[in-house]
Amino acid sequence: MKKTTSVLLTSTCFGLLATSPIAEAISFFDPIDGQLDMGEYLAENAYGFLPVPIVITEPAVGYGLGFTGVFLHESDEQREKRRKLAETSLDGGAQLLTPAITAVGGFATENGTWMGFAGHRRTWAQDTVRYLGGVGYGDFNMTFYPQSTLPGLDSVFNGQGLDFEITGGGMLNHLQYRIIDAPLFVGVKQLYFVTDQKIANSPIADKLLQTLTNTSPTTSGLGLTLEWDNRNNFFSPTQGYNYKAEFLWYNDAIGSDYEYEQLDVEGINYWELADDWSLALRGQYKSLYTDERFLPPASYPDIELRGVARNRYQGDETLSVESQLTYQWNLN
Fold it and tell me: Which residues form the Bacterial surface antigen (D15) domain (predicted)?
């Protein structure tokens, strides 16, 4: 059973769990390939707990740390079936995702950004139905490069970034249904956020913002999703494809203070090149449609690339492509 995971995550979890009484009865090394592996711990604990550290290197918020407690839920029958699959498969890690997972955690970064969150993922009928939901609250300090045609604001923006402090919370609900026996899912997605926004680095711009716009907006969206997912591992895939498309409507009829539509299309391909090497290619297209003259800064599509600060490049349409070469370092 070979589980692909980061050395940091594996080492941290091993160190925390090895001190517990259960470590005396459960091996943390795979009996097939002898590698360090959390598989037996996960397979033997229907209501197990997995501590997951969060390391943040996002340029938009600076370096940061966090922690997530992941709780795994399943029945005795489900656990036994999953354990047998894990113990008889070299790539057993792909079989270790329980039908229900709950995560609770938080993080903070060097620029004062912080967030607390809780989420739940569950599947039914042998992964025919999937549900993902979550809530969160936090304070985000990020620089935006606003897209605006409001009178008086253009001269203040002048192409320069404005430091926004956005405080508030929101929730996500996503329900998916598998089409026949294919790895194709159709779904319904709902987003809801309530925030307070202010500009921290320009009193003039903040005063104009307070006068001309709603600085405590409610953003509510509802839409359809389509996903093709045949990855060989949910957490760290090395083979397969994951293509996603979603179209969300934000409208006054569902409680949104602003009306617009968003399209987000993303595709990721994974190829296993050798025993310890894999290649991934990702592409993403985003677009926004609206008659509003001004929207909350985070509403506009942006470029999502590693090493590039979020929201640095925004517009009505964005397109990004990136590749990743991964080497799996196994601890003997």
Answer: 200-286
